Fold these 2 entries.
Entry 1:
Amino acid sequence: MSNTHDTESTATHAVDEPREVRRTHRKSYAAGVPAVAVALKRGVEQMGAVRTAQTLIKLNQRDGFDCPGCAWPETPGHRKHAEFCENGAKAVAEEATRRAVTPEFFAAHSVDDLRTRSGYWLSQQGRLAHPMYLGSGDTHYRPLSWDEADAVIADELAAMDSPDEAVFYTSGRTSNEAAFLYQLFARSLGTNNLPDCSNMCHESSGAALGASIGIGKGSVTVPDLEAADLILIAGQNPGTNHPRMLATLEKAKHNGARIVAINPLPEAGLMRFKDPQKVGGVIGAGTKLADDFLQVRLGSDMALFRGVARLLRDAERAAPGTVFDQQFLDESCAGVEEYLDLLDDVDLDEVVEITGVTRAEIDELARAVATSRRIVLCWAMGLTQHRHGVATIAEGTNVLLLRGMIGRVGAGLCPVRGHSNVQGDRTMGIFEKMPESFLAAQDAEFGITSPREHGYDTVAAITAMAAGKVRVFVGMGGNFVSASPDTDATADALRRCALTVHVSTKLNESHLVTGRRALILPTLGRTDRDVIDGVAQRVSVEDSMSAVHLSRGSLPPVSSHLRSEVAIICDLATRVLGTAHPVPWQELKRDYDRIRDRIERVVPGFDDFNIRVRRSDGFVLPHPPRDTRSFDTPNGKANFALHPLEWVDVPAGRLILQTLRSHDQYNTTVYGHDDRYRGISGNRHIVMVNPDDIASLGLRAGQLVDIVSEFDGEAGVEERRVRGFEVVPYDTPRGNAAAYYPETNPLVPLGSVARESNTPVSKAVVIRLEPAASA
Ligand SMILES: Nc1nc2c(c(=O)[nH]1)N[C@H]1C(S)=C(S)[C@@H](COP(=O)(O)OP(=O)(O)OC[C@H]3O[C@@H](n4cnc5c(=O)[nH]c(N)nc54)[C@H](O)[C@@H]3O)O[C@H]1N2
Ligand SMILES: Nc1nc2c(c(=O)[nH]1)N[C@H]1C(S)=C(S)[C@@H](COP(=O)(O)OP(=O)(O)OC[C@H]3O[C@@H](n4cnc5c(=O)[nH]c(N)nc54)[C@H](O)[C@@H]3O)O[C@H]1N2
Ligand SMILES: [Mo]
């Protein structure tokens, strides 16, 4: 076998450019035959037929690689032959493509030229194949050697006045081993500036759960979901973003679960599922998933949860001992009396007004919560990316606590994570404020002194860059400029750095918005074979339910110049910190088992890491509330949160905009222009608006508008604008609109963040629509 794969010619790859918007019927079900067809088509386009077959066979299998798509767990014990979904297959095709972006490509395209291309075009050009350098004033990236690249970074780091002039960003695909070494390098250098995508994602979940139950991770497993009798899914679109979750929900359903979807949009995946891996899913009508659909207004979930809590309290008072889990409340919880007092203020008519759902629907939800014996609450970005995201998740937690739904089979809290290893990265220390226990253990293990002052999170890092306080920005994966809020402000901030470095698999916008100098360092992905000194290496990842397992890529890399993330970090660290540094970087690089030995000695729960991770299905990390109903909070109890009730008002003549994912993208990576389940295709520059709002705002369907956001900043009302978006009538509540991320990120103000978690408020942007100048 050759060491690298034959690549396609280095010619530029044409893409389907956006066309006019096409509308078809919104789908009433997810998956089914079209999903399989789409998955295979994309695979063959990018990889060719043989590589497609070789790759999909290894996806999520015991000896294969972990899907780089989402963080939904593989089914323990009985993996299906093909444990993948349409969107997982697209993620794989995107990574395992035979197309390569070579030095010749960069010679043919100036940076200015590349800046005129869409993100979609950039990512479709293929895998980055060689380290590239852009010097001050250069028009084109040019190739350089890894040694030269490390020297550039080392020079800039050495020129800093303080280690805090460096920022080390991480996206959530980085393996446990690479993440551990990356934070170890940053802290050896002397900074906690470790922002990550989680700051924009589930940070609100971590903050809320940490305070309430003492651990920022979900408390359920897949078998719990399958055994649940009531599953609430709030602010999540699993049909698109976690398609394998639908199979779990279908199973739960067959076991008798009732599913309640809480969402402003009637998302297809929540309604009905046709499993493409089963005969019934191919020819039958599929399984009806959601029994109830509560079409709530944006940002009203906290009010809904509090309304339910009030109804639970009233029912308990009417018939004591029938609703609350009194024993659990007495033995394990604190703050319940104060919380019950807070519920005095709940006005259920007001809850109806805030949420936009009927009193009967709220009563029925409360009845279901009061009478079900095993309840799971699932959520994602629809709850976290709000100003009151932390309070909203804490409120949902309060409801479950009243019913004792923690540490019980078939019940619990289920924040559904995004990136495939975002949870593992945090476990490994990617966090600007890791607890003292972690830092102390790491210092003792390696004989270094980690800094104790907290570092920058994502928003703080942008603010610091804008203030000229950052010299070097390093991105371990991700697409910082496009994923962050306030695109123009973030771009200006990045341009103030002396050096921006991206360790990447694919070309993206962040390579084109650079500091004075810039580097692109191409790395291996999950699907690639990782061989160091002739020895095949494996990495580990942690899924959304705290299960850790191995992942091994098997495809020959697209070029012999790619290095693993581990190798990149270790070589850079050796260069910067010297061979006498107490961390044996080169020894760790040569054998990832040695990295795992160190992780075992620093991070709790990784005992016998190398042995247990080799078991089929790996192992599950400890979770005190789930395992033993114990709570690692200052008072040792599960704490009821006491936040004042908050929601989102719609100012007159304005709309509240949520920015979300289409069915045809992975975060900032656009796969195509087909938001299939929503029946919108051809073009992503659209805004979904309720037909009555279209009429009352004096607009018409199909009209082109500018979207202008309004934000009450420190210096008065700030406005931001994106131009030329088509108005699409859609079934969204009055006053609420929706448009795609990242096209609308320029509208999200940097100063608009969730309290406590500092997560950008991407799901509630105040906007007005203005007829486009050209219309
Ligand atoms: N194919 C694919 N898979 C992915 C991703 C991808 O881009 N593509 N991204 C990955 C990542 S990093 C993440 S974090 C996850 C994201 O997974 P999701 O959170 O499902 O992603 P979003 O598209 O942001 O969808 C938010 C959902 O919440 C709803 N919502 C918005 N605001 C509210 C609200 O106020 N209340 C309620 N109840 N609902 C609301 C929206 O209507 C939408 O259904 O998916 C991961 N998986
Ligand atoms: N308006 C708005 N903004 C949002 C959101 C939203 O809902 N609305 N969602 C937020 C959320 S939930 C998230 S998680 C962030 C996502 O933010 P990021 O994680 O920063 O963005 P991605 O688009 O996932 O990053 C894609 C890039 O990662 C690189 N990459 C892919 N795989 C690998 C790998 O294995 N190794 C390395 N080194 N690089 C790799 C590729 O070069 C690719 O171009 O965006 C956030 N931004
Ligand atoms: Mo995410």
Entry 2:
Amino acid sequence: MARSFFYGFRTRLLMLFLFTTLFGLVSIHLIITSSNSVTQYEPRPAPRRESSGVFHDAKAHPEFAPKETKLKALVGLPKYAPPTSSIILIRALGNALPPRHSTNQTLDNLDFILAHEDSFPNTTRHWFVNRFVDPEMENQVLDRLRKAQESYTVIPFDLQIYDKIEYAYDQIPKDQIHLPTTRRITKKEVHLAEGQIQHNKILYVINVNGVRNAMLDYGRTHSNAEYILPWDGNCFMTRNAWSSIQSSLAENPQARYFKTPMDRLQESNEALLSDTYEPKPVEEPQIIFHRMARSNFNEQLRYGRRNKVELLVRLGVPGPWDKWSWLDSETAISDRAHAFDAVGDVPIAGWITRLNSGTFLAERSAKARGRLRNKAVTLLLERLDFRAARDLYGLTSSTLLFFNEKRLLVERAEWKAGKRKQIFRELVRLADQALLAGPWSVMDKKKFGCGISGDCHDYFHPSPYMWPQRNESGHTDWSKPFKRRDGVRAPGTSLFSSGSEQYDRSGLAAMKYNTTLLALAYSLTDNKAYVEKAASNLRHWFIHNATRMNPHLTYAQVKWKADATAVGSSYGLIEMKDVYFFLDAVKIVEKSEALSLLERDSMREWFADYLEWLVSSLQGQQEFVQDNNHGLFYDVQVAPIALYTGNIALALSRMQRSASRLLTHINTTTGVLSQELIRPTCEHYQAFTLQGWANMARMSRKIGLDYWGRFRDKATNQSILCQAMRYANPYLQKREICPGNSHSEDVRRWWPLLVDFSQHCQQPSNEGLLNVSDWIPSALRNPDIDRYLMPPMYDYGDGIAPFWNLGYHW
Ligand SMILES: *[C@@H]1O[C@H](CO)[C@@H](O)[C@H](O)[C@H]1NC(C)=O
Ligand SMILES: *[C@@H]1O[C@H](CO)[C@@H](O)[C@H](O)[C@H]1NC(C)=O
Ligand SMILES: *[C@@H]1O[C@H](CO)[C@@H](O)[C@H](O)[C@H]1NC(C)=O
Ligand SMILES: *[C@@H]1O[C@H](CO)[C@@H](O)[C@H](O)[C@H]1NC(C)=O
Ligand SMILES: *[C@@H]1O[C@H](CO)[C@@H](O)[C@H](O)[C@H]1NC(C)=O
Ligand SMILES: *[C@@H]1O[C@H](CO)[C@@H](O)[C@H](O)[C@H]1NC(C)=O
Ligand SMILES: *[C@@H]1O[C@H](CO)[C@@H](O)[C@H](O)[C@H]1NC(C)=O
Ligand SMILES: *[C@@H]1O[C@H](CO)[C@@H](O)[C@H](O)[C@H]1NC(C)=O
């Protein structure tokens, strides 16, 4: 998979030859003529650990600080030519990771090295161009290497491979991701959890130990050098450093491994060129391998997670890491025994300078480095996820997320050809009714007062069991706290019930459903009247100053108690959950050009403001961490809004991260939705919640994420969602789901779920008891065709999109 190039290899050899020859002559000459000053040029002995003397600033890693301070005495190479060890210095050039590095670090430092690093006798160098994600950057790097006639190897980045590698959202308990209100965890724990989730993606993209091993391999198989230096790309070798390394190699011919402590440059790179530059090699060392050394780096350790230290530990190199604790998963992949061929001590060999990363703060503080590194990695993965969604799946902010556009086109062709009349006729019938309804606005409640806030533009709805009080003349008195009557819904809090016109929930639902029917009917029939009407509904609810809703749900499900502020609860946010299909309708309207560009912008601005509120308000944050269906429906809401408003990274991450809720939401072994099983209307919540997962799964297919197949119980390897379906769907088992508290649900609400099930799940084994075919209605056995025979509209509370059976495609 790695392409190798050997540009100008012969030229380099020739130059090397000339240099060594010349060097030999000059040195001999010096020995003859200036024997009295030999001491000044004596090669510096390798630093010895036991010797005394304080090396300034050696606090961080004192054991690596060369204890002798006469580094300055060593200006230039020794003036006679002792035999040197042959070495190959191989460096990995990789993606700069802002904000940890400046964007230019890779190019800047490469330029610096090519301009200022000497050719040393018996020393060759080679480069690994490691998984550049940006082709433009890779070209610039390759250009420079070619011009300088360097030899190099490219390890390419492949977006398809990247995309197939999975995040481990289902391996980490939800608590560690969705910052809990109940259990405080430290930032460090959060970062660690994030890293574990990203682990496999990081291993591939950053490939830190992968490239190190590839460099080692290259040194062993493509060069005769006695010592291999598979080092980080920003390492710069001064003459002094080289000499010092050479003398240590010469002094320790038996050693298989050497540690070369790192000097982290705090100044700009040019400082290195000054005669007065004093290295401070106190940082985690690079490692030199004798070509007979057999240990490799552990490729299971990711960037930022002790990838080099793990080998140092195996080599028995003492260091601050002796006090570090390791994760079980890391202990499991490292045997921690001495590397089998490490012979006694691992000597120090010189030092190396790490060129400046362009972010001075990070160079000074290890803590800042860690923080910026985590941030940088997350940003890089977000960029790549975005690229994969765009380039591999064609996702844009106008992509329909719930309905499948191609499938809708097929259905439009069928309509034109006069097929599938029943379901199409039903859609047209309802759309014709919708032509006569609406428009709806939060101002419609004005004649009943404007609710708690007094601003009619605020969406307002009391919590169902909280009863607003009346004044003496029988009018609602919004200035008084509500009274709780458990289990008895206050008048008007049921959708479309009489009295509901004093609140906004019914208007919002009617607006969303009617507008969606109009948009779908337009996409089927091409009849402009439908989409014009849909556009006018949108203007009225979202755009026009006189009638628009303010973009927040602060007063949804208000529980105003005497001792508390009169705002809504987090649960009220679920009243906007239908955006997963509604925003598809909005996009259909936009594409029809029934909205002007300005109006289009207003719509997107409205949702951007609402999204801002959704993620930053206390109510939003509380909803986010709910363990039951509310947390899930929060994601079902945030993802499509984020996509619509162009916050693609957030859209992708909500679809990916929702998987982390599976673990706390569903018993992965049994498929029991335990949070929902205890609800008084248990059967409803089983179906409702599974429908939420099905909706999430349907959206996530648009980014190549298969919720049904991907997330499995570790022990049984059964799909978690399929298990949950087998447990709860009355068609798939004989038991009563919620003995004693079923609420005579319309059993047909399980049909859309059965269609999903038959598409994605293996039929349950009959265990000698039941033949599945007996349980699944014959009309449902061929879901590809028969789903059109199922009801297109269900009860609003069922969480099933209107005409869910159109534009359905996997
Ligand atoms: C180069 O290194 C080899 C050992 O790898 C050594 O035998 C030889 O003398 C060295 N050549 C020079 C010019 O130092
Ligand atoms: C990075 O390089 C570009 C082009 O060489 C230059 O314009 C830009 O200022 C550099 N940025 C930094 C932070 O050095
Ligand atoms: C009750 O509220 C209504 C509407 O706000 C108001 O018109 C009426 O004057 C109030 N009656 C009393 C007795 O406060
Ligand atoms: C459309 O709006 C009307 C009038 O508000 C309402 O009665 C009806 O239920 C709505 N249709 C749908 C499908 O929601
Ligand atoms: C709507 O309100 C905004 C902000 O108050 C104002 O800038 C704008 O001019 C108004 N538009 C119309 C048509 O009244
Ligand atoms: C899942 O259900 C099984 C069987 O009832 C039970 O043993 C297990 O503890 C449950 N798992 C969790 C996480 O509650
Ligand atoms: C789990 O099942 C899936 C689907 O059948 C299969 O692709 C995968 O290899 C299985 N995994 C294991 C660990 O058996
Ligand atoms: C299950 O029932 C179907 C139709 O009722 C029948 O064709 C099939 O053979 C049965 N399968 C088993 C395993 O009994």
